[in-house]
Amino acid sequence: MVSAVFHSPLDAAPVAAQNAMNNVAISASPASARSQKQSKTEATASPAPASRDWAALSRSFWMAVLPPLCGLGLLIGLWAVVSTTTGGSIPNPVETWKQALEIFSNPFYRNGPNDQGVGWNVLMSLERVAVGFGMAALVGIPAGFVIGRFSFLSRMFNPLISLLRPVSPLAWLPIGLLVFKGANPAAIWTIFICSIWPMIINTAVGVQRVPQDYMNVARVLNLSEWKIATKILFPAVLPYMLTGVRLAVGTAWLVIVAAEMLTGGVGIGFWVWDEWNNLNVKNIIIAIFVIGIVGLVLEFALIKLATAFTFEEVKA
Amino acid sequence: MNTTTNPSIHPSLSTKFIEVHGVEQTFKTAKGLFPALRDINLTIAKGEFVALIGHSGCGKSTLLNLIAGLTTPTNGALLCANKEIKGPGPERAVVFQNHSLLPWLTCFDNIYLAVERVFGAKETKAQLKARTDAALALVGLTPAGQKRPGEISGGMKQRVGIARALSMEPQVLLMDEPFGALDALTRAKLQDELLEIVARTHSTVVMVTHDVDEAVLLSDKIVMMTNGPAATIGEVLSVDLPRPRKRVELAEDPQYVHYRKAVIDFLYTRQGHVEKAA
């Protein structure tokens, strides 16, 4: 979808040059699919329809595939340039790829507590995120509901939230270590703190923005609080809530790496720090990619989940 | 009390059902107090169809919301069946301007929510479902029952909204420009359906409208409002056209033309244009 929006003016441009006289609207930036198609038909009027369809299809395929490949190519190119100019202190892409194949050939080995496969490290990090985030959801979503529903509570908690939200979650790590007397619960505590704010805030905003029309329906029908909550509030707030969940998981995945660097143990953040101590830069680069891909997958899954529960009229 | 003479012929002779006494409504806005309505006095008989007409911003919807109980008046009192209107309730069903169906419920469930609320205490599930099906059938939407509002057209949504209101067997049906957002053909079709339904159910209806033809075609009484701010009732016109009314035949009926002219005269000659003031 994104590529369609971005490329239509581009590929309409040469055609526009040919048909400049009779196609004035072509310069309008998001050239609509129809005008684009029309101008294309004019430009390539002679070939048979079948081959034209095929040409259009292959072009749209390349337009979908080519730009991301170019982006990836640019990244790898820059990386290779940096690698050669620094005299190999940053490993080049080919070496890193070979190392990655080796690492991923056996991701789940265990050689003692400080030497485990990358798979275990990722799973341990995900587990911490899941536990911390899960507890934050259990507390944050109901809190968001009551803060959104009752203006007294909203006025009471808004200053506290505004005060505490900008604090880096890592600043809470020592408190966690002190209270829980352990690295693992302290890391989970950090995740809890960082993921609770987006969920409270988004849920509360969602409750406050339930369309007045729906509340009027509830009032005319004289529905009970329970029916209002289950039939109107919850479904209306769900999209906001899921946005909160998505932001929370995204932040949690950012924070867990930093937290694990400080707490140690098994986890992707610890792995990065451990490899730095071993001066194994290839593994650090691999870890960066792994963290990125896991984050991407989490984000994608949560967006899918959110769209499944969003009704067109809620967005309007 | 409830003399069941044919209410549509001489509504002025039937009993008072909704009474509005000296109602005044003032809103607090950022710029200070805004007087929306003043000196509203109105009685509506049981089974009467009343249209509220006026320019934009003249407080038609405000008056309807007051009768619905969604807002309370600054001054004055409203009675329904000799009881003060203190808040909204299922006996005064509202058809909202934008239908206000819950998008996450199917059409059936949207109506069922209302049916369950009104009859749930006394009736079995099967009876409630039968009522819901009957309401859907009344507006000709039985096949669309399992669809969500997002999957049906604007006219169908409005019909579901009407079905939901009617399913509650309300004493009064309050409609806020129910057909305002629809195209002319769909609007005409729904007006005809509404005429039929009201004839069958003998509902008392208060309808806000912008549309002169709609007002004359449907109502027993047209309440014409002056321009806001501080709008009030300018004139009340009784429409003594026999029922059932057929739009095609009425188009050339001299009486119909006369009523239509009277409303247009009020709106455009005496009340002029209001957009500057509003």
Please explain how this structure is put together:
In chain A, 79% of the residues lie in helices and 0% in strands. Chain A has helices spanning 2-18, 33-43, 49-85, 93-105, 118-149, 151-164, 173-180, 183-208, 212-221, 225-263, 268-277, 281-308, 312-315. In chain A, α1 (2-18) packs parallel to α2 (33-43), α5 runs antiparallel to α6 and α11 (268-277) packs antiparallel against α12. The longest helix of chain A is centred in the C-terminal third of the chain and has 39 residues, at 225-263. Chain A is flat and about 70 Å long. With 278 residues, chain B is α/β, with parallel strands linked by helices. Chain B has 2 domains: 14-91 and 172-270, 3-Layer(aba) Sandwich (Rossmann fold); 101-169, no CATH class. Chain B has helices at 60-68, 107-119, 125-138, 154-167, 184-201, 212-218, 247-250, 254-270, and strands at residues 16-29, 32-45, 49-53, 75-80, 83-84, 92-95, 172-176, 204-209, 221-225, 233-238. In chain B, α2 (107-119) packs parallel to α4 and α3 (125-138) packs across α4. The radius of gyration of chain B is 19 Å and the shape is globular. Classes of the chains: A mainly alpha (316), B alpha/beta (278). The interface between A and B is medium-sized, with 18 and 24 residues.
